[in-house]
Automatic annotation (TrEMBL), chain A:
<keyword id="KW-0547">Nucleotide-binding</keyword>
<protein>
    <submittedName>
        <fullName>ATP-binding cassette, subfamily C, CydC</fullName>
    </submittedName>
</protein>
<feature type="domain" description="ABC transporter">
    <location>
        <begin position="334"/>
        <end position="563"/>
    </location>
</feature>
<keyword id="KW-1133">Transmembrane helix</keyword>
<dbReference type="InterPro" id="IPR014223">
    <property type="entry name" value="ABC_CydC/D"/>
</dbReference>
<dbReference type="InterPro" id="IPR036640">
    <property type="entry name" value="ABC1_TM_sf"/>
</dbReference>
<feature type="transmembrane region" description="Helical">
    <location>
        <begin position="50"/>
        <end position="72"/>
    </location>
</feature>
<dbReference type="InterPro" id="IPR003593">
    <property type="entry name" value="AAA+_ATPase"/>
</dbReference>
<keyword id="KW-0812">Transmembrane</keyword>
Automatic annotation (TrEMBL), chain B:
<dbReference type="GO" id="GO:0005524">
    <property type="term" value="F:ATP binding"/>
</dbReference>
<dbReference type="InterPro" id="IPR036640">
    <property type="entry name" value="ABC1_TM_sf"/>
</dbReference>
<dbReference type="InterPro" id="IPR014216">
    <property type="entry name" value="ABC_transptr_CydD"/>
</dbReference>
<dbReference type="InterPro" id="IPR011527">
    <property type="entry name" value="ABC1_TM_dom"/>
</dbReference>
<keyword id="KW-0547">Nucleotide-binding</keyword>
<dbReference type="InterPro" id="IPR003593">
    <property type="entry name" value="AAA+_ATPase"/>
</dbReference>
<keyword id="KW-0812">Transmembrane</keyword>
<dbReference type="InterPro" id="IPR003439">
    <property type="entry name" value="ABC_transporter-like_ATP-bd"/>
</dbReference>
<dbReference type="Pfam" id="PF00005">
    <property type="entry name" value="ABC_tran"/>
</dbReference>
Length: 569, 576
């Protein structure tokens, strides 16, 4: 039940609605039993031709019970459903809270379609937790016990029968049902997750699958997963219908036993015959709500499963933020001292013993072969991860002790791949500055050579309707709106043509004259003006210095320049 | 909805099982009432003992068991029907997606589509598992009960007749509102899914703009909005069931009053009849009430279903493919005649483009960013339909061929290749239809300059990549996509800026491999680093979607200003 603890804590936040649901549930349950019991009594009484006023009293009672029952049910449903859906929203937010610090590391373990299935499907299935597992048994037991107490005034035997019935319907049959369920290994929840994951992947990789003519294969594979899921789901539903069937059988048989015992007791003179009809009616009603009890353990198991999938994402792979803040607003300085960093699956570290310093206001270029670790340096400087060994300092403070948010506040960065959100250009620009008005947006769009995009221009998921270069320029527009004076840019113009690149660069350098700039680039042109060039090769810093120094050195950088000359001429 | 009726027709056997079961159910309900009343009558009124009721008691047990069996059979058949229907819808959705074209309906809105496929379809479940069986039961059982009541006591039947028209009235009220509201609910659900997936994918970006924490509120608001939409749907159900309850209670009260009067004042009715009616009448109303609730669920399902069918029946914008085969032993002859394309109604317009791609030709497409280069590649690859003009392959319209016949000969390395969740090896052999030996894969990896990477990995080529696996650097992803092409070794190679994000050294290795590939393939390369295309047989220079120049490097250099400026700029020489 450990998994459900978080859910229980979130359920407890809706105390008022829970109380209302239980109180009105009990009220409705009791009045139902009362209503039918009284009408059974009424009819028997009427047969004896009693004085009219006794009948009128009983009839009035029946009416009163009827109204109370209808209203009780209404209120119970209203409150219990409202509570349920509020609880679901709590669960969703909590899940997101847990997830947030784990990104991006979480994608090494989980796929986004899977996470989606969790936050939608698993959360939805938890609605049964409150609506079927949590409070109905409480209501049922209270109603049963009240009925039993009422019955003891007439017959001990009947009360005992009711109790036995409750045990069979509420405990024995559900228990047998769980045993049966344990046998099936395939979990419907997981099946749903698999299906959703595969579908999301199919949609994301749609173009590549189409080119390689894999979409039919994928479709067939998805169809198979769908069949498996659907079959398991069907089996589960059938089992549930079966469970309810067994409970119905037990309930009706119990009612039958009530009739048998009553008749026998009446014969023995231990019970007045006038109550026979009443007990038949009571018994029929009190067992009516017991049918769903058969599936309570099944729902519970399903909920446990869902809760586990939701709240047992491996925690703490992400990095914990420190709490020291940086002094606001100014170009930052960074330094890396003997930094080593590796990903779990690699044999060699991605960065090895790297020592680089980035003084405030300096301009540094990081160059090197593809896969040599340049973007990793960016990740570390952005405090997205902590090095295995060595130290990273920002403003001479240990990065691990500085709050991530305050680093992000002071840094304008472009990742190698920028994400754009579904919506409009405006929505995407507002991320950087909530107060930016249209005039400013147009200004900045103009500045990054995107005058044809208005703030209203739609943007599809992942910027799907923009060209490669447009995405890069929009990413630049986004950070231009944010007032920070440290720039860490990972190949910001790799998909932009030379002419545009040159205009953008010129403009950028004018903006950032006094700022700290770290530029990752494959383009070796224009590096003459950089204060410092760092050459990375297979995770190691093999050369660093100014342009002249490196050319003098006649090492890797020099060779690359030579190569450039032969290629581009 | 037509599809559903068809399904019901096809599954007529299951429907008849429900009908039969409902008939049995009606009989057993009446029998059960009759036996209860008989027992009470004999014991209470006639003062008989256990022996007097042994027969009815035994019969009663049998009837109760039959009732159980019958109800369970109905429930189980409903479950089976629902499962059929859901399979049918999901299959059609899959089929629909797989036929879509890339630009307009592929790829986009993944979250929303997943939600339609998973949740909206699930929502339709109750139509077959709840509504249909209930309608059948509620048509049959009350009818039997009514006739029985009319036979034993006509007055009660009149009261029932007088009050029951109110009940359908409420169905109508439910019906009017519920479907719309449930459509809204499904929409909210889709939006919630879409939003979540988008936020999840962009969470790193959100963090860097310090907006990640704020997304908690977005999620919360969306899911509260979803709650409110759900409650709107449910409230109508609750209110109407309250109303139905009150109506049926009033009616039962009227019947009871009438019976009491008959029994006591006029003394022309016996206890047996009175009790029998009093047991049957609530059952009658019960079935009508349940129908009300089922009607509500039915309408809710229909709301969801209309969303599903909306998706299924969305007008096709995909490529229309023919049936022709395309077997080649050398690169095909491809001709574009005034081919154009437009995104949506008034989106970006590309073309007209005319170009003759003789077998083995090396075409380059150049132009400034956003000038329509990638769009043109999409057209040639057959991923997007041309609007006007034609693309001919071997003197036949491209659309005459079967899709796979064409695609089998094409490799397309896009600007942002997708890395599937799977091993490195799987990610590469996807290009060659899975029939490659380990040696071939290794060669392809070498050509792409990725072999060293696999040596550095614990699991080598079996390292899982993509979501749920290891990440790759930008250039590695690009090279992985190239490795797919090297392995496939097709007749037509489309490259969208193949050397983006690569250092010069890696680029040099690749250009050798690409030259080798071009020996027996038609190559179409998009590039803005112009040095890579100087050797091309023909260069198409695009400006704002239009062809601004067409010819060899020398020709363009002489005639097209923009082209000259770009080439010289990439050499680092300022032009005036
Ligand atoms: N998420 C990840 N998980 C595991 N390994 C990774 C991950 N991201 C990158 N790597 C590996 O770390 C190494 C360095 O990657 P990085 O992204 O820093 O390279 P890069 O220098 O930026 O290359 P490029 O110029 O191609 O972008 C590569 O070998 C890459 O495969
Ligand atoms: N799916 C789409 N829907 C609507 N418009 C689009 C879509 N894809 C691209 N566009 C628009 O079409 C124009 C041309 O885009 P395209 O991707 O062909 O440019 P490109 O020449 O490849 O540019 P780049 O060099 O920047 O990649 C752009 O203005 C872009 O916004
Ligand atoms: Mg990188
Ligand atoms: Mg492009």
């Amino acid at each position: 039940m450990k998994e459900l603890r978080t859910v229980l804590a979130l359920v407890a936040r809706e105390k008022k609605d829970i109380w209302f649901s239980i109180v009105f549930g009990v009220l409705a349950g009791l009045t139902t039993v009362g209503l039918f019991g009284a009408s059974g009594y009424l009819i028997s009484k009427a047969a004896l031709a009693p004085p009219l006023y006794t009948l009128i009293i009983v009839i009035a009672m029946v009416k009163l019970f009827g109204f109370t029952r209808a209203l009780g049910r209404y209120v119970e449903r209203l409150f219990s459903h409202r509570a349920t859906f509020t609880i679901l929203s709590h669960i969703r937010t909590r899940f997101f809270e847990m997830l947030e610090p784990e990104v991006p590391h979480i994608f090494r373990k989980y796929r986004s379609g899977d996470l989606l299935a969790r936050v939608i499907g698993d959360v939805e299935s938890l609605q049964n937790f409150f609506l079927r597992v949590y409070y109905p048994p409480i209501v049922l037991v209270i109603v049963f016990l009240s009925t039993m107490i009422f019955t003891t005034f007439f017959s001990w035997m009947l009360a005992l029968l009711f109790f036995l019935g409750l045990v069979i319907v509420g405990v024995v049959i559900p228990f047998i049902a769980t045993l049966k369920q344990r046998k099936s290994q395939y979990s419907v929840r997981e099946g749903r997750g698999i299906l959703s994951t595969k579908l999301a992947e199919w949609l994301y990789g749609f173009r590549d699958l189409k080119i390689y003519q894999k979409q039919e294969e994928t479709e067939a594979d998805l169809r198979k997963s769908m069949e498996t899921y659907e079959a398991a789901h069907e089996r589960q539903q059938l089992q549930m219908a079966g469970g309810e069937g067994w409970n119905l059988l037990a309930s009706l048989t119990a009612t039958w036993a009530v009739v048998l015992v009553s008749v026998w007791q009446i014969g023995a003179g231990e019970l007045d015959g006038i109550f026979l009809a009443m007990f038949i009616m009571i018994s029929l009603m009190v067992f009516e709500d017991a049918g769903p009890m058969a599936n309570v353990p099944r729902h519970l198991e399903d909920n446990r499963n869902a809760a586990e999938r939701l709240f047992s994402l491996p925690g703490q792979t992400g990095r914990h933020s420190g709490d020291v803040s940086l002094e606001p607003f100014g170009p930052l300085s960074f330094s890396m001292e003997n930094v080593t960093y590796s990903f779990p699956e690699s044999l060699t570290p991605v960065l090895q013993d790297a020592t680089i310093s980035f003084p405030a206001g300096s301009k540094t270029a990081i160059v090197g072969a593809s896969g040599s670790g340049k973007s990793t340096i960016q990740q570390l400087l952005l405090s997205m991860d902590v090095p295995e060994a060595g130290r990273i300092k920002v403003q001479d403070k240990d990065m691990q002790r500085v709050s991530q948010e305050s680093v992000w506040k002071e840094v304008n960065t472009i990742l190698q791949e920028s994400h754009f959100f579904y919506g409009t250009v405006r929505d995407n620009l507002l991320l950087a500055d909530e107060d930016a008005d249209d005039r400013r947006m147009k200004e900045v769009l103009e500045r990054v050579k995107l005058p044809h995009l208005s703030p209203e221009h739609p943007v599809e998921e992942k910027g799907g309707n923009l060209s490669g270069g447009e995405k890069q320029r929009l990413a630049l527009a986004r950070i231009y709106l944010k007032p920070a004076r440290t720039w860490i840019l990972d190949e910001p113009f790799s998909s932009v043509d030379v002419l545009t690149e040159r205009e953008l660069m010129q403009d950028f350098w004018e903006t950032a004259v006094h700022d700290t700039v770290i530029l990752i680039s494959h383009n070796l042109k224009g590096l003459e003006q950089m204060d410092n060039i760092v050459v990375v090769e297979q995770g190691q810093v093999i050369e660093k210095g100014s342009y002249e120094e490196l050319m003098e050195w006649k090492g890797y950088f020099y060779r690359m320049k030579q190569l450039e000359n032969t290629l581009i001429g | 909805m037509k599809e559903w009726n068809l399904l019901l027709k096809k599954e007529w056997k299951k429907v008849s099982v429900i009908v039969l079961a409902a008939l049995l159910l009606a009989v057993s309900i009446i029998g059960q009432g009759y036996l209860f009343v008989t027992i009470v009558d004999r014991v209470f009124v006639e003062g008989g003992g256990l022996s007097a009721v042994l027969v009815p008691l035994t019969l009663l047990l049998g009837v109760l068991w039959i009732r159980t069996g019958v109800s369970t059979a109905i429930a189980r058949t409903g479950v089976r029907l629902a499962s059929r229907a859901k399979r049918m819808m999901r299959e059609r959705l899959l089929h629909k997606i797989s036929g879509a074209s890339v630009g307009e309906s592929g790829q986009v809105e993944a979250g929303r589509r997943v939600s339609v496929f998973m949740d909206a379809v699930e929502e339709t479940d109750s139509y077959f598992s709840g509504y249909v069986p209930q309608v059948i039961q509620s048509l049959i059982v009350p009818l039997f009960l009514f006739v029985t009541i009319a036979v034993i006591h006509l007055n009660s039947a009149f009261i029932i007749l007088a009050t029951s028209p109110f009940i359908p009235l409420f169905y109508i009220i439910i019906g009017m509102k519920t479907k719309e509201k449930s459509e809204e609910k499904v929409e909210e659900m889709n939006e919630l899914s879409g939003k979540f997936l988008d936020i999840l994918q962009g969470l790193t970006t959100l963090k860097l703009f310090r907006k990640a924490k704020a997304q908690k509120e977005t999620i919360e608001t969306s899911s509260l909005r979803f709650r409110d939409a759900t409650m709107e749907v449910l409230k109508t159900a609750f209110v109407s069931s309250l109303m139905l309850e009150l109506i049926s209670m009033l009616s039962i009260g009227l019947i009871a009053l009438e019976i009491a009067l008959q029994l006591i004042i006029f003394e022309n009715m016996n206890f047996f009849t009175a009790f029998f009616i009093l047991i049957l009448a609530p059952e009658f109303y019960n079935y009508l009430k349940q129908l009300g609730f089922a009607f509500h669920t039915g309408r809710t399902s229909m709301g969801a279903a209309s969303k599903v069918f909306e998706e299924i029946n969305k007008p096709e914008d995909g490529m229309q493919w023919g049936e022709k085969e395309l077997s080649l032993s050398c690169p095909p002859h491809i001709v574009l005649r005034d081919a154009t394309h437009r995104y949506g109604e008034d989106g970006f317009y590309t073309g007209p483009v005319s170009v003759d791609l003789t077998p083995g030709k090396n075409l380059a497409i150049a132009g400034r960013t956003g000038s329509g280069k990638s769009t043109l590649l999409h057209l040639i690859s057959g991923l997007m339909p041309v609007k006007e003009g034609t693309i001919e392959v071997e003197e036949e319209d491209l659309h005459e061929y079967r899709e796979d016949e064409w695609m089998n000969h094409v490799s397309y390395i896009s600007q942002d290749p997708y890395i599937f969740s799977g091993t490195l090896k799987e990610n590469i052999i996807i290009g060659a239809g899975g029939r490659s030996s380990p040696e071939e894969v290794e060669t392809a990896l070498r050509k792409a300059g990725l072999y060293e990477l696999t040596q550095r990995l614990e699991d080598g080529m079996n390292t899982p990549l993509g979501e749920g696996g290891r990440g790759l650097s930008g250039g590695e992803k690009q090279r992985l996509a190239l490795a797919r092409a090297f392995l496939k070794d097709p007749y037509i190679v489309l490259l969208d800026e193949p050397t983006t994000g690569l250092d010069l050294e890696t680029e040099r290795i690749l250009s050798e491999s690409l030259t080798e590939l071009s020996q027996h393939a038609t190559m179409i390369t998009v590039a803005h680093r112009l040095h890579t295309i100087r050797e091309a047989d023909e260069i198409l220079f695009l400006e704002d979607g239009r062809v601004a120049g067409q010819g060899t490097h020398e020709e363009l250099f002489g005639t097209v200003d923009e082209y000259r400026r770009m080439t010289t700029a990439s050499q680092g020489v300022e032009v005036q």
